[in-house]
Specification:
Elements lengths: L2 H20 L4 H22 L7 H8 L3 H13 L8 H15 L13 E2 L9 H7 L6 H10 L3 E4 L2 E4 L9 H23 L19 H38 L33
Antiparallel strand pairs: 1-3, 2-3
Helix pairs in contact: 2-3, 2-4, 3-4, 5-7, 5-9, 6-7
Amino acid sequence: MSAALKSAALSILRPFVRYLITQGWTYGALAELLKFVYVGEVIALDQRDGKPVPTDSRVSLLSGIHRKEVRRLREELQSGSGEIALRHGANMSAQVVAAWVACEAYRDPQGEPLALPLRAAGAAASFENLVRLVKADMRPRTVLDELLRAGVVEQQDDMVRLARGGYVSDLPEDRLAFMGAHIGDHLRATVHNLEGRTPTYLEQSVYFDDLPPIVPGEVRDDLRQLGEQVLQEAYQRIVRAEKTAQSAQAGDLGAPQTSKKRLRLGVYYYEDDMPASNSAGEQP
């Protein structure tokens, strides 16, 4: 392993392993999981490159896992990927809040989310019409109950007000599913770029060190607001592009059906103390 790749792997693994330790995961538990991942990814890489389904011997050679273990792990893979899907109610609730914050019809002249009546005539802004806007295959009442439970909205009589600018579930399973989806796609974007594939994906950050301790506290709220503005603008642009594409497709009934795409744009923030230098002048 090259020194640069080893350093990158350590930087990625350290915070995750630290969390696993707090959850009672030992090295053996993670090692067993890595076997599962290695076998699955060897198969996936051959499929991506248009190669035949690899034999157990080939998977063993590329993964370093014994052939008997490879056979057992392949059987597990056939029964399911092992990935935890985001709970349907959480997924729908997150989409409803995103639309509420970003869509102009659901914001006041100052850009703040409107308080919504539960229902309204026609296409007027209402909570029920908002749920229909995101094509949620759940009853509006069910979505509202989830948002009320999570403390994201407040209801007074027939009016619903957004209490927070984003949906964050209070259930550990939901938070872990969000984490896996977000960090997984971030890593996929990075690997995509490292492999030199096109188009190159956006994968950048702003980094400062040696800052006076007071600076993060002064800018933290401003940076959060900037990030929310970027995501809101992104949501609006994607929705407009989707409507344009749907209109064009409706006008060309003879056009062949193409596979669907998905995308994710994320923003994150982190701060920490600068590590102390050791006696040799190097950071630990």
